[in-house]
Amino acid sequence: MNLKDLFLGLQHVGLPTDRYEETISFYHRIGFETYDTEINGASRVCFLRLNDLILEVYECSACTQQTGAWDHIAINVCDIDAAFEYVTSGMPLQPTCVQKLPFFERGVRFFVITGPNGERVEFNQYL
Question: Cα dist. 72→23, 57, 119 in Å?
């Protein structure tokens, strides 16, 4: 088995913001609809959807507010444990562990790796 067998598609793109309401309004104006809202610690999180594209907009006090502000892409997988095993054994990248958040109806499990350019790639499974 390889990661290609586990890959379901792009799950979302993460966008940190210190202008939460303004950001949500902006994306609503260009056609996105609110898909889900959550609280993560003290930060608000809003998932916006436009057809198959989902943006995760979340509050962050240290945002770049310039080109390159996207924080991460998330890849949707069907088996997070198998994806974790594949990535940690098949590549020289060591994420910390599989984590869980109570987002959406049943939660999500995920882990994050960092690429050679400092880019963050999140592997995510809806529960």
Answer: 17, 11, 7
Enumerate residues 6+ apart whose C-beta is below 8 A from 69: 15, 16, 63
pTM, 2 dp? 0.71
Exposed e or buried b per residue across 21-55, where buried means at least 16 C-beta atoms within 10 angstroms of its C-beta = eebbeebeeeebeeeeeeeeeeeebbbbbeeeebb
Q: Among all chains, which residue has been given the structure tokens 């610690």?
A: 41
User: What pLDDT, in 10s, does the model give residues 84-109?
Assistant: 988 877 665 555 789 999 998 999 99
Say how far apart CA 2 and CA 13 lie, in whole Å. Answer: 23
Local structure of residue 35 (DSSP, 8 states): E
